[in-house]
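New to this. Please check this record:
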Amino acid sequence: MIKNKIIKPWTINFMAFFVLFSLSITTLESQNIIEKTIQSDDISSISINGNDIFNISVTTSATDEIKITSTLDGEYQNDFQIVLKEEKSTLNLSLELLSLEEIPDDKRNAHKVIAATLQLKIPEQLKLHIISDIASVDLNGDFNSLYIELWRGKCNVIGNANSSTINTIDGDINVMTKNATIEANSNHGEINIDDFAYSEEFWKLKSINGAITVVKLN
């Protein structure tokens, strides 16, 4: 004789929660997340070689520490790592292959085998230099100077800098700042700039295909 089994609603909810919780754990474990914190006493500038990194975000605050979080995901995530090198007063960061394992020729570019992101929390008024072939860049805070050069990605900035140079090929440039003297040029994209009073904070913005938008913060 076959007996019908009654499943109570709370049992179904518990099973659903367990499945979702298990999936969450699996997702977290499938990523290679590394966090590092260093003192910023002797550092006045940060230089990021962002090649093969999909997204780079930097925020500033009143702190004396530099906090770095990198997230790597993909088939070869454990073979790559964000490498830090201090040279005089500059902190250099880059994504590098550390493993001796042979990677097939059709996967030589890192972005074909991993998805990498980089997040930095840094002190205010540092110089920031970023170049990247694929990354989009998000910046928030107060900087001494900015130099950003991107091939495919876009650049979003909310904050202030004494001087800024931002160049993109395909990506849009979006800036929200309080004071600025703007020089902007795009070969094929629209340019929209709010009115600013004269300021010694100079922004030089240039794109080949991307749009350029500058909004005045109140």
In short: The CA atoms of residues 7 and 202 lie 67 Å apart. Residues 1-29 have pLDDT under 50 and may be disordered.
